[in-house]
Amino acid sequence: MSSPLLLLLLLLLLLLLRGPAAGRPPPATATPRLRLAFPELRARHGLRLFQLERSCCYEALLLDEERGRLFVGAKNHLVSLSLDNIGQRERKIYWPAPVEWREECNWAGKDITAECMNFVKILHAYNRTHLYACGTGAFHPTCAFVEVGQHTEDHVFKLDPRRAEDGKGKSPYDPRHTAASVLVGEELYSGVATDLMGRDFTIFRSLGPRPSVRTEQHDSRWLNEPKFVDVFWVPESENPDDDKIYFFFRETAVERQQGLGKTSFTRIGQICRNDVGGQRSLVNKWTTFLKARLVCAVPGADGADTYFDELRDVFLLQTRDKRNPLVYAVFSTSSSVFQGSAVCVYTMADIRRAFLGPFAHKEGPNYQWVPYQARVPYPRPGMCPSKTFGTFSSTKDFPDEVIQFARHHPLMYNPVLPHGQRPLFLQAGVPYTFTCIAVDRVSAADGHYDVLFIGTDVGTVLKVVSVPQERWHGMEELLLEELQVFQDASPIISLQLSSKRQQLYAGSTTAVAQLPLHRCSAYGKACAECCLARDPYCAWDGTACTRYVPSTKRRSRRQDVRNGDPNLLCSEEPRRGRVPQRQLYAVEGSSTFLECVPRSLQARVLWTYQHSPDAPQREVQPDERVVWTERGLLLRSVQRSDAGLYLCRATEHGFTQPLLRLALEVITASRAAAPPAPGAPAPSRTLWYRDFLQLLERPEAACEGPRGGSRAPRTQAGPPARPGEELQAARRRRTRGGPRGPRSASPW
Question: Which of 60, 367, 403, 478 lies in the 20 to 30 Å Cα band around 111?
């Protein structure tokens, strides 16, 4: 091959690898469009809180749309709250552990107040009239039925502790341990530690007419120090005999090479609902249990992928086909070097494909894990006994070779990869970790969008929308909001979402919170601001940014989630009204601050300057005297040439809009230091600059703190004749509407 041709091929390959700039997804940002603090959410956006005295740990949340109630499990309590307002009409059940159990727990060396209590971990709807609840019971797991009545108007909420039953295999002993369970029909499927020391982990079926079944005991090939996260029932076909239960957990990986230390992998495990164990082997043990690795990783350019192996929470988003829900999972890293969190989404088709793939098998001199190549017995291990895929009616009818193969080969060789081969949304280098997730599928004017509500370990909720983009054949993730739900920054440990009432419910160690799914008015008062938000819940109705409701009627509602282009949607709307203008004064040689904060934190601020109204505009460039900050411009050592008209503009998503004009007048130092003329008519006209100088003593105070945070207290410029009296008089003059302008101004 000639050298010119080889060079041409190399150049083409380089261009293909780089790809066109327009075809790449924009880089993800860790900055939300809006960041709303706890006081603002409480005062303006409907945040409500509920907490019990001398209780904590609101971990178990059960949403009942029919009754309009939120059932909550906490320390020593069960609570029924109104879905419309969790602060009203609550009903409580006091359910402590018996005194003798608490004393026995204390004698065993446990903390009498922190551990020897009844922490409610499990809460399920059992039938139309009862719930099923389980708690730790001071290291004596206990369960009971809770009567709630059959109708909405039945104000029944009671539990008879005398009819409580043993909770072993349903609830953990230790309140620090996790448990996962699902109630299907009358059967409870649990992933839990079944002993006091927390070493015997099992996947267990209890209640119901069928026999109790569990995983093989003390076999690391089945479960190896697992931490159960969640469990779901998913139908496989129209035949209920094919139904499967899927467990999500993380565990110490058995396939990790020896000598490299312990490594945590995330797993998805499956069992058949009609599994009753084997006849001669695996008696009362699962015969259909299989597990596969659940991968959430960022592909590396050099082949070294970055893995998020610590599974935190799972949400099952139902679709029109109940057999194929979407699985949203929240992960964090286990590395001490790189810390981050990610959300990955999986399809049931990919999950089923992994369980139909090759089994993992150890062979060779080094006992390496390889795909099993020999004959797999029939019926294939993991298949449910039914008429859909075979002639077996019970797992007890399975041949012995099937049972033995299932005992020794529970692990699949191929992992389950996320949709798109990479995380849907991730954050790195941020001061928080994802803890839980809830997802709402929203109908918008240009399609359906999945909105993610992600809880963190600092008491905040992130609102993220996933937008498909044809330009790069992928998804664009928009971080719309960061909401401080809990003022004490307690970690969010559970989330429940009501699409019917458009409310989100969050549980933490200290309280339960309720807040709306949308705050459309917070985006702004103009069509462009509403459009730029790209929130599927919101649309411009011609006068305000309000809740979008799909309707067959033609209405003047403007929404563009996919592109967010105000130039198309808002072209007929009048441009933003007259740009507000503020007068600003500065003393020559001092410093002054030009404040301009856009509503969106993702907007980029541009400054232009005109020396006079007739002069051309020029862009303000930072230098040793001009300092750019998040809140505006800091001008050091003000000169006479700095006087003029400053225009603040915000640019976002390719759209630019003016926010504020600031007219700066520079006062000479000699004029500012001149004594007042004899017989001056009013102090407000001769002494105003003294107050101004006091405000400019520490101009950096205006730049301190995060956006929207409180500003540092202003200090006095020097000892006045009467301490504080002159400043107070100036402030009184200012509140009476004096003629002078403020030091700085914000467009909102």
Answer: 60
Tell me whether residue 653 is in a domain.
yes
609 and 542 part of one domain = no
Rg (CA), the chain: 32
Q: Is 40 exposed, middle or buried (0-12, 13-18, 19+ CB in 10 A)?
A: middle
Encode 337-369: b = buried (16+ Cβ within 10 Å), e = exposed: eeebbbbbbbbbeebbebbeeebbbbeeeeeee
Six-digit token string for 347: 């399809």
Reading the block at residue 377, the tokens are: 């017995």
Q: Which two tokens stand for residue 126?
A: 């059992």
pLDDT tens digits, one per residue of 539-576: 998 889 999 988 755 556 788 899 888 888 887 665 55
Cα separation, 516 vs 500, in Å, equals: 11
Query: Which residues constitute the domain of residue 588?
Result: 581-735
Encoded tokens for 379:
């019926």
**149 HSE (CA, 13 A, CB side):** 14
Same domain, 620 and 663: yes
Which portions of the chain are predicted below pLDDT 50?
A: 1-27, 683-748
585 and 729 both lie in a single domain: yes
- Residues 296, 331 contacting (CB under 8 angstroms): yes
Contact 418, 331 (CB under 8 A): no
Whether 652 and 559 share a structural domain: no
